[in-house]
Amino acid sequence: MAKVGTMALDGGDPRLADKEGQFGGQGIVAYTRPQMRALHDPSISFEEYYYFAQQTRAEEEDHHLASSGQTRGIFSTIFPSKSGNGVEEDSEEKHRGSSMPDVNISDPDRRASVTDQEWTNASRAVRTATAGAVFYLITTDILGPFGLPYAFATTGWGPGVALYTVFGFMAGVSGWLLWQLFMGLDSYQYPVKNYGDLAFRLYGQWARYLFNILQSIQLICSVALIIISNGEALSEAVKFKLCYAVCCLLWGIAGFFIGQIRTLQKFGWLANAAVWINLLIIFITMGVAAHSPPLYSAAGSSAGYGVNPALVTADANGVFPPIQHTAGLPDPSNFGASVNGLMQAVYAYGGAMIFTEFMSEMKHPHDFLKGMWGAQLFIYVCYMLYGLFMYGYQGQYLQNPSYLGISPYAWQTVGNVLAMISALIAAALYGNIGVKVLYNNIAVEFFRAPPLTQSRAKWAWAIIIPVYWSVAFVIGAAIPDFSGFTAIVSAVCILQFTYTFPPFLHLLFNIKKNALRSGEGFDPATGNIVLHDTGIRRMIRGFMAGNWYLNVWNIIYFLGALATAGLGIWAAVENLIVVYAIPELNAFGCTSPLDVSG
């Protein structure tokens, strides 16, 4: 392989070092340029990541102020304009022809011809999303709002409100922690592309593998859940005259086409539409629930049935029990059912799992907090009011998703049709991120496939999307209990990414950052890392320096989230054991779970 001096730009510093870097299993006696590093090179230190991140943040801020002259407000975040196509190359560099060549940069031999400017421009080119787009992407959620009434029906007024408030605030805190991690570890030279990259740069390869596996599971399960919920909605809309398996399969096939959208920028306006569709569904179901009885015929899949079947079982005359509400838990003896219901509320804050992907495609990631806090406030206020209202009118008969539980067929159909459109957009978003995680961490890293920014990757994307949606259909079709499925996904995956992992990562990040003293860090002239001390002494000093109280809080937060996750997994498993004890309907047959006559 050519020496760094032969690859450097004219007038560039070869940055020689007396320390070997690691690349593709080969030793290189020199400082290796970022584009010549392995995709996940363990020899790159935290200090080097942090140094380039500070450079990138300064450049982004300068470009942002020069291009806009002012910061964006909340109104412009929620109602964004169509202008702005991302960070553009410097005009001088454009003139010099420094655009990224159409080469497969997954192949280290091909990257040898890529200049430093071309490498950073390639990173700039994919950063096109705005804070407004992030607001809508975070709130493009079909399972959050329509699972929350079910959560209130299994927890009661007091515990439901208290827990949803705590979960909402802590989800915002987690978003802030992830933002700090991204701002301190991402750069044009070493872009952070997903949650697993944050774990890798702090804890190593094992953490990256764990995060990527869990994230892939959550994303494909989210797509599977939406395929099944849409299948149920369609079967109800056609009065069960179409085979249930076909109802579900149609949505899997629809994903083959809408999943071809590759960039989050293009998802922005679809996500915008999905949010307003969700609000319309909320208003329709609230209005209908206030003027009509619940769908008693579907009581077997209601929240009350999960807590205590006697709450929704008709007497000998076919008369169902009256609608009931509780200030506390509806049945303290069945604590597991209430925990399962709570896991439905956790879904409303499950977006943190893909916050890193959103930030990686933002042209000014500093604005992420505006979109994130706006989305969390929107989710908290709107979803809370909706959940309490629906619980007030339908009590223990609430369904999951809630729009399936209104009784007038005409309005039921309107809600179902709108929900199916909104859910398909959400599923396409989850599938988009899920395929990117798999593609970047398997195809690119192990098989040197071209990155998705390259034109040749379009064909790979077109092939992978149908396969991904087909697998999601099979997973969802095999799970008989929708609420049980969402509970286990929430406890195993969503709760970890939203509440457990952010403090776990931020603790080490804060220690390493606070441990840096004047004169320490990455030396760009030589590529050396200068540290005055190492080991446990340095870790203790980093823990106690600066905002030490944040480190203490991270430990408490992490342990509390871990305990909650354990409780959720126990309750979900206990519920699934009960469900699987008797034969259940699934999407491989023609009878819909909502069709009691079948």
UniProtKB/TrEMBL annotation:
Amino acid transporter transmembrane domain span:
128-512
Alphabetical keyword list: Membrane, Transmembrane, Transmembrane helix
Provide an example Pfam family for this protein.
Aa_trans
For bias kind Basic and acidic residues, which ranges apply?
A: 12-21
What Gene Ontology cellular-component terms does the record carry? membrane
In what ranges is there compositional bias, type Polar residues? Answer: 75-84
What would be an example GO MF term here?
L-amino acid transmembrane transporter activity
Question: Could you tell me the membrane topology recorded for this protein?
Answer: Multi-pass membrane protein
User: Where exactly are the transmembrane stretches of this chain?
Assistant: 133-152, 164-185, 206-228, 240-258, 270-290, 341-360, 372-393, 413-439, 459-479, 485-509, 548-573
The reply on keyword Transmembrane is yes
Transmembrane as a keyword? yes
Q: Could you tell me where this protein is found in the cell?
A: Membrane
Q: State the family named in the UniProt similarity comment for this chain.
A: Belongs to the amino acid/polyamine transporter 2 family.
This protein is called what?
Amino acid transporter transmembrane domain-containing protein
Organism of this sequence: Lepraria neglecta
